[in-house]
Design brief:
alpha/beta, ten-stranded parallel sheet
């Protein structure tokens, strides 16, 4: 009896192991079945009738042709497509059925004449890279940031964008944002949710971009910041909080703070200058109050940690200690920290 009782205990791991092998083999067979279709550089005006099942295509390269449109029926049947490359064509729009591409990870539509991306692109929730450089985009879908939660790279340079939608600040997986050579008037105020952003390039918006939001100091993963060739006169003091910043490009701006003689001495001197500015500020302008509150909330200021350890104090944050307690507890300041205001997806600060 004892032997028979022990038998299932020995067999169970073997059954599980066999099931796992079977699943892995099935996945491997499915991957082998998926194919790459390369129709690039063939001077195509229209697409030929495909010789294989569209559902078996994982990568479709239609770049460097003369295509003026992509049929709705085509994209609707590309159920397993992960990469779509249609750069350097004559496209003026993308089909609405692009929203059917639930597995799409990379979309390259650069070098076309597209003015507006279809709102259905928000359904491509697996999308990790969107390249729409060198088009005629005047806007991006308003709620794009609420839906493309896996997006890591957004390249929209060389377009006609005047603003980035406020939802852009909710792209929490984003690592690279390239919006240079546009007509940007401003950046979204609440950038603090871009916790993984490493590269931000908003250079060459020339006579349009005059200021940067204070929340730029909450981009704690930022390594490279390029704001060159704009109309920026003053960098926000919060830049001194960017501990990982390695490259700062500000040339071509009419900068007065920091002055150019400071900029010319390199990033280290610029950061020290901005630290000094933040330490010697005795007044907190109204527009900065919400930013300071969020710095406290994000733990950037010195505070008690869970195990009794303290975060190393940053010399640029002493200003908080100099605040009058009545000022910090005022209804106006506390209103900025209310949960409804901070967590509202459409919040904005004037």
């Amino acid at each position: 009896m004892d032997m028979f009782q022990l038998q299932p205990v020995h067999l169970q791991p073997m059954v599980v192991k066999m099931d796992m092998r079977k699943r892995e083999k099935t996945k491997s067979m499915e991957k082998e079945r998926l194919q790459v279709m390369d129709l690039s550089g063939m001077s195509l005006d229209s697409l030929p009738k495909p010789s294989l099942d569209l559902a078996t295509i994982c990568k479709l390269d239609l770049s460097n042709n003369n295509l003026q449109d992509i049929p709705e029926s085509l994209t609707a049947r590309l159920l397993n497509l992960e990469v779509l490359d249609v750069r350097s064509n004559q496209l003026k729009s993308l089909p609405n059925s692009i929203g059917c591409l639930s597995k799409l990870k990379v979309l390259n539509v650069s070098g076309n004449f597209i003015q507006i991306l279809p709102k259905t692109i928000e359904n491509c929730r697996a999308l990790e890279e969107l390249n729409a450089n060198f088009n005629k985009l005047t806007m991006l879908p308003d709620t794009i940031g609420f839906e493309l939660i896996n997006l890591k790279k957004l390249s929209v340079n060389s377009n006609k964008l005047m603003f980035l939608p406020s939802s852009t600040s909710h792209l929490t997986s984003l690592k690279v944002l390239d919006a240079r050579l546009n007509c940007l008037r401003a950046l979204p105020e609440d950038l603090e949710n871009l916790i993984n952003l490493e590269t931000l390039n908003v250079s060459q918006n020339f006579q349009y971009l005059e200021t940067l939001p204070y929340s730029i100091g909450l981009l704690l993963s930022l390594v490279e910041l390029d704001v060159s060739y704009n109309k920026i006169k003053t960098l926000p003091e919060s830049i001194s909080c960017l501990k990982k910043l390695q490259k700062l490009s500000v040339e071509g701006n009419p900068l007065t703070c920091p002055p150019m003689e400071v900029v010319e001495q390199g990033l280290h001197v610029v950061m020290e200058y901005m630290h000094h500015k933040i330490n010697t500020s005795h007044e907190t302008p109204k527009k900065k109050r919400w930013w300071i509150g969020k710095m406290v909330k994000c733990g950037t200021f010195n505070k008690e940690m869970g195990s009794g350890n303290k975060r190393p104090e940053h010399v640029g944050y002493n200003m908080l200690k100099q605040q009058n307690i009545n000022g910090l507890a005022s209804p106006g300041f506390m209103g900025m920290l209310s949960p409804l205001r901070i967590f509202s997806p459409r919040r904005s600060f004037g």
